[in-house]
Amino acid sequence: MKTIIFKTASTYLLPLLILFSVFILLRGHYLPGGGFVGGLIASIAFIIHSFANGLEKTKTIIKFHPGFLMPIGLAIALLSGAAPLLIGQSLMTGLWFDEPIAVIGMVGSALFFDTGVYLVVIGVTLTIIFTITETI
Amino acid sequence: MELLLVILIGLLYAAGIYMMLRRSMVKLILGLILLGNGANMLIFLLGRIVKGKPPIIDSAEKMFTEIYADPVPQALILTAIVISFGLQSFAIILVKRAYKITDTDDLDELNTTDEIYE
Amino acid sequence: MNNPYIVLPVLFQLFTAVLLLFFWFRVNTQRLITIICSLTSVGIAIWLFSEVYNNGILTMQAGEWKAPFGITFVADIFSSTMVLLTSISGMAVAIFATGSIRNARLKFGFFPILNFLLMGLHGAFLTGDIFNLYVWFEIIIIASFVLITIGGEKAQIEGAMKYVTMNLLASAIFLTAIAILYGMAGSLNMADLSGQVAQIENRGLVNVVAILFLVGFGIKSAIFPLYFWLPASYHTPPPAISAIFGGLLTKVGVYALLRIFTLIFIPDEFLSNLLIVMAALTILSGGLGAILQVNMRKIFSYLIVCHIGFMIAGLGIYTELAILGAIFYLIHDIVVKTNLFLISGLIFKLKGTLNIEKLGGIYKKYPKYALLIAISLFSLVGIPPLSGFWAKIFLIQGGYQEGQYTLIGFILLGSFLTLWVIAKLWSEVFWKESVDLPKKINVKYFSELVPFKQWVMIIPIVFLTIITLYIGLAAEHIIILSKQISYELMNPSVYIEAVLGTQIETP
Predict the structure, then answer these.
(1) Rounded to an integer, what distance in angstroms lies between the CA atom of residue C36 and that of residue C319?
(2) Measured between beta carbons, which residues in chain A are less than 8 angstroms from residue C30?
(3) Is the complex ipTM more than 0.90?
(4) CATH code at B29?
(5) Three-state DSSP state, B93
(6) Domain Na+/H+ antiporter MnhB subunit-related protein: where (chain A) (predicted)?
(7) Which of B82, B89, B96 sits opposite A36 (nearest CB)?
(8) How far separated are the first and last CA of chain B, in Å rounded?
């Protein structure tokens, strides 16, 4: 698409949407949101950018193949899910730090799990969309 | 509300199965998508639709005494949607590959693997 | 008893898959990791099996949410046996694949996806929650979709279209069944459902749901009117992939049928008659289909269908003895079917074709391999004292006690058809004078492979053959095991008690 408005808007939308996706990721434990939705929003940011500027430009922004996010995300999710096993509790039991961290608030293993999901979703969605776009 | 949903679910299932019985590959995928949506709506309906009664109780009470909105169906639907998202995107890519390789959209042409002598 | 470590088989497969994903392009590293990790996973499965065998049913509540509200994982003796068999076949296939699958396919992530598939299988066997079972089934099918299309040849894509469509349809039916079940019983925990469903007064609706489950799992396990996708697709991917499909994927459907129809829906007369009719027709159609085919892997595909019928027959007769037969057959079938597809891969590498009319002379040229292959082929037929024989004895005895003489006739007919097919295959492939086949350019023959690759193709076949011999010659161990499994299946109160942690009055 070659409209100037869309192209200009996409440049500003990219950082905004990514910031918004992180916000959605962090509020996800008690309020609507979470890793899956956040990941989708973040990948929509890149997809809008690729619609406006072409796939090549978006790829130069991301720098590496988005599929690489999948193993990283899976590893984070696996580690945070399996962490309670180390202290003899069941899989995916929530473990929490005692003190809240500034800005983010209370941090528990659920947050790391959600971060893993967030990365996997970005990786999967972008890989699928890029593959379809490339082969058209 | 329930009646509307029942009719809608019936329509989705009927349309899905009708589309799957066509011979076109694209319609096949559309049929599968409709069928999946019908199943999701069915979970939503059968979880009993209750408005404005969150499943929260006083700390003094031990169990629910009145009807409440069940959160489980929503979790089930969310999971089912995520799964069908992955499956459908795979199916679409597969149909595209199949169209490129066999050069046809007609499912009846895909019969070489059923032949005894290939 | 609560034991949080029973999910280790699942987690370890996920760990292996993630580790392999990090080495996406380094094929040789992937080979090494696969061999080490698949051996370790067998070790974990043996640990789980011995733990369950000694301590009884173990449970794990994910996130410490008590049953029936959270997701429960249950390792009873049936699931842990299936996990053990899965990891044994998985190991054999993974090691075979390090030698037989081409680098081009490995670069598309064959090994990680194989491990995701095995993770799904372990999860499906260990879960005690019906929606969680659905999720594991979806993981299995999405991994199998990728495996069946990997490489992208024309036949593969055509076979995959049928495979994908039928499996997606089965999932939709399965999901519909879960929806209605949840609406009726208000629970998803299988042990809890057992009690809830028994109390529902609207028996008609319960039967409808039971039939929906039967159709959904029936498509996956290839029962009579629903099996046509199987012979159309299982011979298209590379042999290692066919082996894992043929050995395990249909058996998950059988496992789910055995579990659901002994725990949640106790078959009434209509349902058991339906199961018996379906079993008989499955045996007949699979056997007749196998006679007609000339492609070796298609013959084996039809034999899968035929032998699924035996297990469903055991479920249909529904006595402890018949279920014992079905379980024994399940154990024997997983090992033998995996091995047969691996053997077909070996023969393809030796000769460059799988058309039995063109093959020949293997006995003369490779007598040792012929002997090795003969053990698997004959135990498939059920020649005493090899493994298939014992299972059929119990099935026939179970049927005789219940007066199911027609079904016994079909089981004997099925064995006879299998014997015919295998005898034909033996004389065509092994004893017939060999014809000189034109050399194919795009096939890498066995003699051209490096010795490492030759060894990794032979060792899994030898290993699985030894297990087949063990099942046949040390049948009393397997009989004791199957007896315990069938006792637990027919008396689900032990299972329910272990999961819900309460005393349940036996009806």
Answers:
(1) 42
(2) none
(3) yes
(4) 1.10.287
(5) helix
(6) 5-127
(7) B82
(8) 55
Q: Tally the domains of chain A.
A: 1
- Test mutation, A65, A68, A91, A127, chain C, max C CBs within 10 A: A91
Q: List the single best residue of A29, A87, A90, A117 to mutate versus C (max C Cβ within 10 A).
A: A90
pLDDT tens digits for C427-476?
A: 988 888 887 777 887 778 888 888 888 899 999 999 999 999 999 999 99
Most confident stretch, B68-82, C102-116, C166-180: C166-180
What is the span of the domain harbouring residue B34? 2-49+75-107
Residue B13 lies inside a defined structural domain of this protein:
yes
Domain holding A96, by residue range, is 4-135
Residue B67 lies in a domain: no
Q: How many domains does chain B divide into?
A: 1
Return the DSSP state at A92: T
Q: Please give the DSSP secondary-structure letter assigned to residue B60.
A: S
Contacts of A85 in chain C (CB under 8 A): 4-5, 11
B43 and C179 within 8 Å at the Cβ level: the answer is yes
Q: Is A124 on the interface with B (CB under 8 A)?
A: yes
CB pairs under 8 A between B and C: 104
Residue B56 in domain: no
Answer whether C140's CB lies under 8 Å from C120's CB: yes
Is the pLDDT score of C304 beyond 60? yes
Q: What is the pLDDT of residues B65-106, one digit of tens each?
A: 777 888 889 889 999 998 998 899 889 889 988 898 888 888
Q: Which amino acid is at C154?
A: K
Give the C-alpha separation, C180 to B47, whole Å: 9
